[in-house]
Design goal:
By secondary structure, this protein is α+β, with helices and mostly antiparallel strands. The protein is built from 3 helices and 5 strands; from the N terminus they run E-H-E-E-E-E-H-H.
């Protein structure tokens, strides 16, 4: 009697879940730009690239159980003497398996960033 085992490989399709939010804040660009690295440090997210001239930051969040870390692209732009526009794009790689567990986490990370930014600016 011959027994044949067939190994079936299940491949998960990976894709990026992308979220974007833009907020105008009633603080100067200088104050907001100074606060952004403090926010990322407070949240224990890694700054991968920072461009002080363009007011652009590329940061990476920590991975969580059953989810990947997100990449955040943060841009600040002065739209007035005391008004700054902050735009955050978050991209999180997900698979067909982790997408159900990860649902909403990308948007939540953007919310965490803006909540912590508000705390830093209030100091």
């Amino acid at each position: 009697m011959n027994i044949v085992f067939k190994w079936i490989t299940v491949k998960s399709m990976a894709y990026l879940r992308k979220e974007k939010e833009t907020v105008e804040i009633d603080y100067s660009l200088k104050k907001v730009w100074t606060a952004i690295p403090k926010v990322l440090t407070s949240l224990e997210w890694n700054i991968e690239e920072i461009d002080d001239a363009a007011h652009h930051v590329n940061a990476k969040t920590k991975a969580a159980f059953m989810s990947w870390g997100s990449t955040l692209l943060i841009d600040a732009l002065s739209v007035g003497k005391n008004t700054t526009r902050v735009s955050v794009v978050a991209e999180t790689p997900v698979t067909t398996i982790t997408s159900m567990v990860d649902f909403g986490r990308t948007r939540q990370r953007i919310g965490l960033f803006f909540t912590e930014l508000a705390k830093q600016l209030a100091r």
